[in-house]
Design goal:
With about 220 residues, this protein is α/β, with parallel strands linked by helices. It has two domains: about 60 residues; about 140 residues, Glutaredoxin (3-Layer(aba) Sandwich). The radius of gyration is 32 Å and the shape is globular.
């Protein structure tokens, strides 16, 4: 083979410089796409986990070591409106629905009480005594109770003793106050149902569906 032919064959066996660069860039580009694909898959997986976790919290509210069964913590308080005693001992023999809420900072919480007062006949039919509990000072709470026309027995738990005993503190949006918690205590003084809601207003129809019927 002549020298001219060998030189021509050698040039033919090598890709042109621009082709070699394209190949290197292509390999680098594919590597980058693989890396970004893996990162995107991780992000999507984390997002799915968070969505599922949030969905569960929406169903039942914050979990934490909640008092949700067994003997109800004892309490001895007074109705802010008339000074009448409200105690676990005095309420024995009644089915009691405690409503722990944010109080005067939460208009929806008072609207919740108003909506349940309007369904007082259904509460009586179920044999339920509803009690409203906030951690507001007595004078501030009494003013709000009068402004909203609340007739439901209401407790000012300013010391947070009762709310803490029932693990209601920090179950909502604020760490140092009640959330939106309902606790059902039966005639024998045992907790039969509890729900920490993440919304500040639960439609009464929904609430009456979720509260179990007890004797």
């Amino acid at each position: 083979m002549s020298k001219h032919a060998r030189s021509k064959q050698s040039r033919a066996s090598k890709p042109p410089p621009e082709r070699q660069g394209w190949t290197a860039r292509g390999e680098s580009s594919r590597g980058g796409l693989v890396w970004w694909g893996a990162a995107l898959a991780i992000i999507v997986a984390v997002a799915v986990v968070l969505v599922v976790a949030f969905g569960e919290s929406q169903k039942s509210g914050p979990a934490g070591g909640r008092v949700s069964s067994g003997p109800a913590p004892e309490f001895s308080e007074r109705d802010i409106s008339n000074g009448a005693p409200l105690s676990s001992a005095g309420l024995r023999g009644e089915n009691v629905l405690l409503f722990f809420n944010e109080g005067v900072m939460c208009q929806a919480c008072f609207e919740q009480i108003q909506s349940l007062q309007q369904r007082s006949a259904e509460l009586r039919k179920r044999g339920l005594t509803l009690i409203n509990i906030t951690t507001d000072p007595p004078d501030v709470l009494l003013e709000a109770v009068r402004a909203y026309g609340i007739k439901t027995p209401t407790i000012s738990d300013q010391s947070q003793a009762m709310s803490s005993a029932y693990d209601a503190i920090g179950q909502g949006m604020h760490p140092n106050t009640n959330g939106h918690t309902f606790v059902l205590i039966d005639r024998r003084g045992r907790i039969r149902w509890r729900r920490d809601y993440t919304t500040m207003f639960v439609p009464p129809d929904q609430l009456f569906t979720e509260i179990p019927a007890i004797q």
